[in-house]
Write a structure and sequence with these properties.
mainly alpha, single chain
Length: about 160
């Protein structure tokens, strides 16, 4: 038995931009995992490609070289965590309670950032002898620093920060 055309449902096809966004996200998550699990020396584009389960062409279309991919992956992880930490929530009105809640929120956030810590450490150690990697890392680190500052201001409130 077949369905009449008017009752059949077909999932809408994703447009090119949405497919690219999904692929980028998937590749970056795989790159972070490989960087944390295997270190900078083990984080080859082939290993990341395998972990992300994407074609070589798809990986290289998104990120033409390994260092750009690894820098983007570490920044992707940090931005996601900082963004999650800065999400609006109800804060206690009393100052001491707010401080406790803010410190607790920061602990949760930075505890969750252990992957970023190790990824960033691997990259900065590699950058010590790789000037182009160091140059690629610097703008992202400054951006993350500004985001962390803004998030901290939101956590502690205008009165304290």
């Amino acid at each position: 038995m077949t369905l009449a055309p008017e009752t059949a449902t077909v999932a809408p096809a994703l447009d090119h931009e949405e497919r690219s966004r999904i692929t980028r996200h998937h590749v970056l998550d795989a790159a972070v995992a490989v960087l944390v699990e295997e270190g900078y020396s083990g984080a080859s584009t082939l290993r990341i490609q395998q972990k992300a389960n994407v074609s070589r062409g798809r990986l290289l279309h998104q990120y033409p070289n390994r260092d750009l991919l690894l820098v983007a992956a570490a920044q992707h992880l940090a931005e996601n965590r900082v963004r999650a930490a800065g999400q609006a929530r109800e804060w206690p009105a009393e100052r001491t309670d707010r401080l406790r809640a803010a410190v607790g929120a920061m602990w949760d956030t930075y505890h969750d950032l252990q992957g970023y810590f190790w990824a960033a450490t691997e990259l900065w150690l590699a950058a010590r002898h790789n000037a182009s990697l160091a140059q690629a890392l610097a703008p992202g680190e400054r951006s993350i620093g500004r985001q962390v500052r803004a998030s901290t201001d939101g956590l502690f409130g205008e009165e304290i920060s």
